[in-house]
Amino acid sequence: MFGIDVRQKAWSAGLIVLFFLAWELFCLMTGMSDLVLPRPSQVFVTLVQRFPVLWPHIVQTLATTMFGFVLGVALGVALGAIIGVSKTAYDTCYPLLIGFSSIPKVAVVPIFVLWFGSGTVPAVLTALSICFFPIVVNIATGLATTEPELEDVLKALGASKLDILWNVGLPRTMPFFFASLKVAISYAFVGAVLSETVASNRGIGNVMMTASSNFNVPLVFAGLFVLAGLGVALYVVFSLIEGQVTGWATRKNDVIAT
Amino acid sequence: MFGIDVRQKAWSAGLIVLFFLAWELFCLMTGMSDLVLPRPSQVFVTLVQRFPVLWPHIVQTLATTMFGFVLGVALGVALGAIIGVSKTAYDTCYPLLIGFSSIPKVAVVPIFVLWFGSGTVPAVLTALSICFFPIVVNIATGLATTEPELEDVLKALGASKLDILWNVGLPRTMPFFFASLKVAISYAFVGAVLSETVASNRGIGNVMMTASSNFNVPLVFAGLFVLAGLGVALYVVFSLIEGQVTGWATRKNDVIAT
Amino acid sequence: MQFGARAAQIESGDLAQVLARSLNSRAPISGIWLACTLTVMRMQPKTQLDRQPRPEGAAATAIELSEVSVTFGRGDRAVPALSKTTLKIADGEFVALVGPSGCGKSTILRLVSGLVRPTSGVVIVGGREVAARAMRVGMAFQNPTMLPWMTIERNIMLPLKIVEPFRSNFRRLRKTEFRDKANALLEQVGLKGFGSRYPWQLSGGMLQRANLCRALIHEPRMLLLDEPFGALDQFTREELWAILQTLWMTHKPTVLLVTHDLREAGFLASRICVMSARPGRILDDSRVGFARPRTVAMTFEPDFVALNQKLRAFIEDARSAAEQGAG
Amino acid sequence: MQFGARAAQIESGDLAQVLARSLNSRAPISGIWLACTLTVMRMQPKTQLDRQPRPEGAAATAIELSEVSVTFGRGDRAVPALSKTTLKIADGEFVALVGPSGCGKSTILRLVSGLVRPTSGVVIVGGREVAARAMRVGMAFQNPTMLPWMTIERNIMLPLKIVEPFRSNFRRLRKTEFRDKANALLEQVGLKGFGSRYPWQLSGGMLQRANLCRALIHEPRMLLLDEPFGALDQFTREELWAILQTLWMTHKPTVLLVTHDLREAGFLASRICVMSARPGRILDDSRVGFARPRTVAMTFEPDFVALNQKLRAFIEDARSAAEQGAG
Amino acid sequence: TAEETTIKFTLGWKTQGSDAAFFYAKDHGFFKEEGLNVVIDQGEGSGATVTRVMSGAYDAGFGDVNAIIQNASTKPQEAPVMVYMMWNQPPFAIVAKKTSGINTIKDFEGHTLGGAQGTPTTRLLPVFTRKNGLDGEKIKISNMAPNLQEPMLIKGDIDAALVFNITSYFNLVLNRQDPDKDFKWFSFGEYGLDLYSNGVMVSRKLIASNPKAVAGLVRAINKGAIAVAKDQNAGMKAALNYDNLINADVEKRRLQYSFEKLIVSPEMREIGIGDIKDDRMTRAIGIVVEGYQLARAPTPAEVFSREFLPPRAERELVYTAN
Ligand SMILES: Nc1ncnc2c1ncn2[C@@H]1O[C@H](COP(=O)(O)OP(=O)(O)OP(=O)(O)O)[C@@H](O)[C@H]1O
Ligand SMILES: Nc1ncnc2c1ncn2[C@@H]1O[C@H](COP(=O)(O)OP(=O)(O)OP(=O)(O)O)[C@@H](O)[C@H]1O
Ligand SMILES: [Mg+2]
Ligand SMILES: [Mg+2]
Known about the structure:
The complex is a heteropentamer, with two copies of chain A, two copies of chain C and one copy of chain E.
Chain A: H1 2-30, H2 40-85, H3 87-101, H4 105-116, H5 120-144, H6 148-155, H7 161-198, H8 204-213, H9 217-245, H10 252-255
Helix pairs in contact in A: 2-3, 2-5, 2-7, 2-8, 2-9, 3-5, 4-5, 4-7, 5-7, 6-7, 7-8, 7-9, 8-9
Chain C: H1 5-11, H2 13-24, H3 33-43, E1 61-72, E2 79-90, E3 94-98, H4 105-112, E4 120-125, E5 128-129, E6 137-140, H5 152-162, H6 166-173, H7 177-188, H8 204-216, E7 222-226, H9 234-251, E8 254-258, H10 262-268, E9 271-275, E10 282-287, H11 302-326
Parallel strand pairs in C: 3-8, 3-9, 6-7, 7-8
Antiparallel strand pairs in C: 1-2, 1-4, 4-5, 9-10
Helix pairs in contact in C: 1-9, 2-3, 3-9, 5-6, 5-7, 5-8
Chain E: E1 5-10, H1 20-27, H2 30-33, E2 36-41, H3 48-54, E3 60-64, H4 65-74, E4 81-85, E5 92-97, E6 112-115, H5 120-123, H6 125-131, E7 140-143, H7 146-155, E8 160-164, H8 165-174, E9 183-187, E10 198-202, H9 204-209, H10 211-230, H11 232-242, H12 248-263, H13 266-271, H14 278-292, H15 300-303
Parallel strand pairs in E: 1-2, 1-3, 6-7, 6-8
Antiparallel strand pairs in E: 3-10, 4-10, 5-8, 5-9
Helix pairs in contact in E: 1-10, 1-11, 8-12, 10-11, 11-12
């Protein structure tokens, strides 16, 4: 068992490495200018060299993102629960939310900046406003599609709507909640960075903006790699929690004993 | 029954109107400058007045978005199916995808432009690249959490993996597929518009960029309203399909006869 | 007759063992309902057990369905499940509901528990119109729907989490007393050690037994049991009959039991209602007079067999009548 | 005795009706298996029906479990479900599997259908190691898991969509012949008109009958039935027994039936295997010699009752032995 | 027709009145006369023009010469070449709100300046402070997107902004301010940073493969510029023709502003539009090298080529506002 697991992870890691190798080769073979698409090796070198400079920016971006993300999750779960439970809320909020999220956040950031000044606050707000929607949608759908049979178990006991939400709706929705977290965390990064590129003196977005006007494309990509890395790191954290919480839903392999 | 349904819809419409009224009043009371946040009434007036000018741009944006969206859905379903079915694909693709979607697309658009020139192609690609991820995640999660009992029904008949995917996995996942479509369509708009603001001579994004560099904020908001409207219109379309396809999953009210 | 031996054993010799185990268990006031029940039983002479605390006439009405019809769906696709069913159950009665498949038995239970509202007619439970919430109802669904994200133990403890007075103490006691309570029940139904498993790790019959535990754990005054022993083998079934009988005799909850097994109905119930084919109505309402505690051996005696045959004939008539009507 | 009347009726008088309906149905070659079956039956003198096409010894082995153990989970939480079970079933045999709840009966069916792989030992089905895919297996799960997004009709037609030779014609015939086939089956089990419903609109017993239809529709050479009549009333059950018996006599599929009803086992099976409590093993393997077609009336005859009692004793011994071992 | 050479041309930004020369040339068939099919796309910044041309996505564009200098320093073989210098005066300026109490450049010390990252104005500020003896440490910089500078300036979040005068002036107008009365302008050109700025650049590939096309392109644009200098209304007509979303009044004023402040200068009168003075360019390169901390100073010839310019006589631009 252990063997298979390790082998599988090795495979995956190998494939990921392969992806970067392919990219490297592609650039080398097509003689791609590093102004357009730098080779991963260049990016890594830049990343390592400039890491001390990047570090405070990484911390800044991570902090604003996490803050916005946490708020976004809270808002998303709350809204999702309301929408999933009430038909009126569903009919009212969904159009508004879809409308709101069809709006590019780039257009909204300046408003945040004018209201709250540049820097951390608009970054947090942008992260929040971009990341809560997938959570709302999945929580709402999860609640709306909960099997009535499961709810009946509690209803027959005279449980309140809140009891049912808490004991049936939300647990049932967990796998899709975690799915939406994967989307949400990556969008939270996008939001925070977006806001930083618009108005901020710190953060990866700021670095990338400067680097790009310097035509330092490898540094831009270093910034992108940092973002990707942070996204993946948080994904790994959530995956571990997910494994604990939603193991019941992905029990496929357990049935076949070996 | 019919009565209740109409009443509910009226409620929802009323609440939506209320939202805009509140916004209008807020602006009037705080004496908000229309350079920061125009009143909805101003926006509507601008929208109506400039509609003939906006029309070709709307068509352009809608076309690129839909194109990107359709491609994104196809890609998303395919990737989601692979990830949901194969553990190795899960371990390999998820980190790469999370990494990729943590990257602000603003940084990617210029690369598309450098490769494909400005205009429709990068807009389609951006829409695609921003909208497929929520679909991947939900399809993959849906497949991974399909009850093994349901799959056993087909397995016992000697069905192939593809049979199972087609007859059990995907239908079971439909509610969450539609949920992800809601996120995907709004992000597809964001992506297309984003690309248009960076590199295009047409489209709502271009309009908004021009308007914003002219500080014609009501026109910017008119663009946002158009986007929101398009998003909602497509949502309504999907909702109708969804009602047909996933009715079985939201059968709550059917159980109680009246 | 040898068939009854096992059940009889549980009612006599095994008691000491069950009781001892319960008392040895860690929780001090682990007032395990069943264990207590059994204690009470042992201390009283057997013949006195079949007491009727209230004279029949004076018993308050626990459940009353008057002219209740239920139709699922609308228009073309309407399925009439019940048509003008009238049924009155006194407090503390043990009523068995038998009838052909699809005749509306589960629907009656769902009406009583408030999960389905009647299309017409009135359902009065505990003196109020469909006020299941006010009662402590224990319901064993026909399909043992355990919540898949919880272990069996936690599934069984669910009513304690929801229903007062347990609810207030749930956070405090769920790791000690309540858990012991759940495990004691599990042990009673032969699922010792399976409390920490997940529902999908149990066999069909095991799930059904866990389902029964969930219906009992909060000591409800009203039990709605929908074929609670359907997927069990005869012996396990008979053991559980005995346990259920004892429980009823001690606490006198109102029980509404749906079953297809006429022996089961005869063994357990004080009244058997036979339903017609869909749309269901109560066709026959027979009182079962056998003395309690009843033993499995009794079910092979001529009186008992005669009752069974009477019921059988009823059901058969109901079925063929319905079929001719339909055909 | 009157109990058998209904079942006997189906085997004689009703046939004409069933057949007529089938022939009147729109699909020209609607070769409804059951209808054909019944036709064949009618045309042959009853006594010849219990023919054994191959001498017992020569019959090929359909299913062979040799020293099969299955353990679910690992380490502390390991549950041994089967331990060194050996079972050999010839082609065309009708074997009933009885035993206490949780002893591993469903696990055996899942082994044979290839859904579970043995921890140790070998399972040979149709001459190949766990090669369920090669066989046309019809499986009725203990819990009738209908796909909730399909109507009953479409659920029942599922095997036709998957299994050759139907698969190739599915797109062409699903609206005509196959659908008629499904509806004819539904009518046989008393679910006429429910084909267009969704699973959650059916009662427990109705679902179980639909489940049986799904196992039969593709005319499998091997039937794995896991308590297919558990949630049905006695009459529906007996009707279905008769249908199943006729089907078996005509087509001689290999049948492995799990049941808790000893009468059912005696009525249907040519061999009854009694399993021990968990971890399961085959304790007893009795051949049932009664002539076919058997009638419900026969189940009340002394020979039959004696067989039942013998089996009962076996199971009881197995249970108490296990309990003493565990205790 | 079949022999027409297609040239993909990128503007420096979204459609603006100051681009009228290109639209005019296109509308009046000047490009066609040269056998060119010029496709004009809007841009994403005058610096990005360089990237677009370098990557091969565009053949030519209107952009910042300082960005060429920057790239020529590291990638002399890839950097595009400027072939027609349109704006020979630098638009780089600092605009301060009069109420903030900034009257001289010395007053920047102790105040907050809003800058858009990466714009030449922002990046050359260190050179500006050094050349003018200011203490850079005491000047606080706040970064923001270009279109946020004016609103934040008006709101008082910043005291002055590092801008392009041609953009910022009209942004203030559009924000209903009086840019002359309430604001004070400090142009880099007047404080020792005598730089060149935007002009027409082409890729080295195009020069190598089709020099005739380059010459034609320059000739056509030159004709357009001269025509628009005479008649801005005609220029605006062409601009509106290209993009009917623009605010014609403001863009016309922007067009005139570009002539008045950035194009018409003593140097232009002397050498004609489109050309440069090499010694001034050498000095400008020095400033950029210092400001951007470049490793190598490119020669003016690496940055600018006058090879494709029409004769001096054809480059006589006379501006008359109308
Ligand atoms: N997926 C699983 N994971 C862990 N244990 C399992 C699993 N499936 C079955 N078991 C265990 O295997 C044993 C046998 O189960 P099985 O379902 O075969 O019993 P059964 O004979 O069909 O019982 P019943 O008559 O109650 O249906 C049980 O003790 C059960 O707990
Ligand atoms: N949610 C529903 N929607 C539509 N029809 C329903 C629904 N629930 C039950 N029915 C119908 O109502 C009738 C009675 O169902 P019910 O479950 O009460 O039967 P039952 O007596 O419990 O049968 P069984 O013994 O098979 O469990 C059935 O014909 C069924 O088809
Ligand atoms: Mg039922
Ligand atoms: Mg089983």
